[in-house]
């Protein structure tokens, strides 16, 4: 059984990697750009959709504001990129969490860490939901199964992350470049068609949105301002992922800081140019995108055709510009789906690394520090996958609903990070000599100050305009995560404080006396070995105890004990309710009350069974007893294993080793307990 399970594990996970494999070759310019920009570039797949579906609340007239709002969103995104280019100079190995913690204190770092972890979860959920919709646009037969496709995407990404990166010729960098080539090729072709008058309408140009009652009286004044702000906050999803290069400077080739700054600039310019191009072409082709297609009507009134299917904005543009059903259109739609998968994979790399850093600082369980067979943080990958799956299922893979909870955490971390950088430069300025050097510091501080003001304003806009649409849920989740992580750190600090050595505790390190207690459940070889080991430790006193679960069996055991003439007194503990642990614990507590400073060592005989299926034939009494005894102060547990012939033959294929105990006497019958061959404990509870 164990070999079968191990074979299945190796089939799913692969062979273990040596630790030396961690020393990977750093990424050069042309590889680092697509690898660390996939998250930001993928926002182009859904940010224009969010702008248009929000403007659709005001009717067809409001959709004309799309290009202007797109320019405003791009401007904010580029400003954030410039701010991070300055931050990289001061914290090349940092990131938002390190910057906030170093300059604003642990609570600020904890808040940013919680917000970033939540953002990575939403990145996976949003990316897989959007991927499912683009796959549906490319393969209409998948229509209605978006949730299942998104769930499958999360599972595949999790397994790929656990297995580790492959070494195939088709790399993520190459796929990202193919996406960029097709996307900009479509934009250029669309602009040429627009200039020559050959640009055709989108499939949704024949429908129009039904205005929301709140805007039914027309767009003017406060109503227009609210709609524009809501559309701007929705489009701010474009800024998600721009911080990834700043958090991965150490993975780039030298000179790392210069390379990271150039990667961020190229990422921002390509994302900005493509977004403006998409928003312009969406306006020129008459693209309509709404949250609920039931809220559409034919142009001029009347119902929409029953066979109408709403596709994402990029899919509509690809069909309108490159030919509906054409090879290039289908290739672009598929590459958008591939890029979304790459963005999800990037989050599966960033989330476990951030979780491991938080765990190293004591804010998360230390299990998140452990690397798996393939050198990845397996526990972090599993945690992210479960959280993302929950979001995908709860929100039924609706990208628009997921994005409503997404951006607030992003801009919260941006704002706190920029505030940390302003404080960093202000401290640095006080210790910087020279006029030119001080002016350079002032310039950098000004850039981060502008970034702070803009990101704070955007965060406020997002919070106000989206509070009723779910932003409060994200804030509540961040607050809950901060509270939980602070409690975890408090626990670790309390444990460390209690375990620290002090002068008074050093004096009590050695007990005055040691009492040995041998738990007897049958008079067999494991029991005699436990007796021998207990005597070899030379305790101050020694006794054997047997719990009377069955009087006839106990009488036979006592008779066998007397026949052997063992020089150890044995005590029978009554158990009227046939319970094993409680009588033993009462007996040990009585010993402790008479001599509180003495140490009691309980020797438990057990044996090792062979294969996994054999362990199913034995109970787990000793494992439960040991778990109870570990909570008793002043009591230690010593397991005395007896390796069976089948275990030695199956595990090491070695000849049976000798023992000082003779294989004769009434106690040499079969044993009914043990320890599994994998090292876990089974029990010696059944009577011979």
UniProtKB/TrEMBL annotation:
Principal subcellular localisation of the protein: membrane
Membrane-topology annotation of the record: Multi-pass membrane protein
Biased composition (Polar residues): 678-688
Keywords of the record: Membrane, Transmembrane, Transmembrane helix
Pfam families in UniProt: AA_permease_2
Region (Disordered): 648-688
Protein localization: Membrane
Residue stretches spanning the membrane: 30-47, 53-86, 107-135, 141-162, 174-192, 219-242, 263-282, 321-343, 375-397, 403-425, 446-464, 470-488
InterPro entries attached to this UniProt entry: AA/rel_permease1, APC_K+_Transporter
Name of this chain's protein: APC family permease
